[in-house]
Amino acid sequence: MWDLIMRKIIADGELVAKCGLYCGACGAYLKERCPGCAGNEKATWCQVRKCCGERKYGSCAECGDFQRYEDCGKVYNFISRAISLFTRSDRPASLRRIKEIGRAAYAAEMAASGTHAVKRGRNK
Known about the structure:
This protein is mostly helical. It has one domain. The chain has helices spanning 27-30, 47-55, 78-87, 91-101, 103-113. α4 crosses α5 (103-113).
């Protein structure tokens, strides 16, 4: 069945998820099936959200515990790697990009490209 409700992709730094994905270009968010990371109070299972919340981080890009985001078992675990294969997304590259240019500029890049993350192989 076709979803009749569809949000437009906009650039909004508040739609950058804790793990580096851009909710503003996610199909579930655009079809109003998900409120996005910041508004998803049901996502108590997400260890990344929990960790960032405890540390008062906007995203993992603010964390300095690891030299490489790939070394963090919360942001780069089996499930996230499997999802990344399916979506061809690169969360560590997305987090590096957020750290480099900031959340608002990253949101603008993702909105302009219509994608939810830096694609694997692009590694900006």
